[in-house]
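Continuing the series of single-chain predictions for the mutant panel. This is the parent chain; the variants come on the following pages.
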Amino acid sequence: MKINPEKFRAKIIERGFNNQTFANQIGVNRGTISNILGGKTSPSLIIVQACCSELNLTAEESFIIFIQPGKKKKKKKK
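Parent structure:
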């Protein structure tokens, strides 16, 4: 699952967290958050749910951050 790291990071900061405090709140280590933000790993569904809950994201915000509308795969030409 690709995420929108800029919007995710902005929401973390907007809610008054840094990577360490946010990670502590959702029960993961700081490296996990850093790797997700850096695109090295994808968040599991459980982590996505924890993030949405802790950041009080609306359904629309969750969609924009974790699903990234508009980034469609290109169809291969035959």
